[in-house]
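Hi V.,

Quick status before I head out on leave. The structure for the redesign project is tokenized and pasted below; the design run finished overnight.
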């Protein structure tokens, strides 16, 4: 059966469409984008969600971490992405310390939506009071648990999270609490596939994984990683889809196909 997005008459996707996909067991494909050209290509490949991630601090700006990214950077890149995107649902990250208080979160989420054109904002960690407040003001919120790049100096490195029973339980409880606070999507980054499976099963909102195994409702990767543009060591959870394709368009389509068919991620891309 063709998936609903293909059958629709090109209406921009909403988070309700993504929820319906979870309920039907249809996988959601997501990629990051930071500019108009990639946004248009990703949109044309019928990828449902574009994340303007603060990973731009590393892949666009060349920093070693995401911490230097400013809200102005996020607004600029989000605006470039939304300008070129007709159908995909665009989520923008609230970067480091821009949602440290309810007031800051309100001001910065408003800027990403009003000036950037984002449909949803994403924030790292179980910041329940902030999520609750943003949702009460009409902001659609995506949570983010597991490996949290904004907490890198506390974590001490980009490592798989949730490997002990205690931390796994904490992650499950945090995921439920984020859903109860009103978030309508959750990203799980670099956690064991079995734990991600449990969380995905227990949550009614769509759960998108990156390095979290194949049982999540959808997958997200950094676009530069799937095109082999990134320098340094490719993360284990990622895959270069351009290697077996003759164009960027084909690589993007192959990524969507692999996610939809459950061929990506394989065990080799999971923990
Ligand atoms: O910033 C980002 O691109 C992200 C994804 C890796 C999930 O948060």
């Amino acid at each position: 059966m063709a998936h609903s997005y293909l059958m629709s008459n090109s209406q921009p996707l909403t988070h309700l469409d993504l929820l319906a996909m979870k309920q039907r067991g249809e996988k959601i494909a997501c990629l990051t984008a930071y500019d108009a050209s990639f946004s248009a290509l990703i949109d044309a490949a019928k990828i449902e969600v574009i994340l303007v991630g603060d990973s731009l601090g590393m892949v666009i700006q060349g920093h070693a971490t995401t911490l230097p990214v400013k809200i102005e950077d996020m607004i600029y890149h989000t605006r470039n992405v939304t300008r070129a995107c007709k159908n995909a649902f665009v989520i923008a990250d609230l970067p480091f310390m821009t949602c440290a208080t309810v007031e800051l979160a309100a001001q910065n989420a408003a800027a990403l939506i009003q000036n950037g054109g984002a449909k949803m904002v994403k924030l790292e960690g179980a910041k329940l009071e902030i999520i609750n407040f943003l949702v009460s003001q009409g902001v659609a919120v995506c949570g983010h648990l597991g490996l949290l790049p904004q907490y890198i100096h506390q974590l001490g490195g980009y490592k798989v999270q949730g490997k002990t029973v205690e931390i796994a339980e904490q992650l499950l409880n945090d995921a439920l609490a984020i859903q109860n606070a009103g978030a309508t999507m959750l990203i799980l980054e670099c956690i064991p596939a079995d734990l991600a499976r449990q969380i995905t099963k227990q949550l009614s909102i769509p759960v998108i994984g990156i390095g979290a195994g194949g049982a999540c409702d959808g997958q997200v990767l950094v676009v530069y990683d799937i095109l082999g543009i990134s320098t340094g060591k490719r993360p284990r959870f990622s895959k270069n889809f351009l290697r077996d394709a003759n164009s960027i368009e084909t690589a993007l389509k192959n990524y969507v196909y692999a996610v939809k068919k459950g061929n990506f991620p394989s065990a080799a891309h999971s923990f």
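Above is the designed sequence. The chain has a mean pLDDT of 95.

G. will cover questions while I'm gone.

Best,
W.
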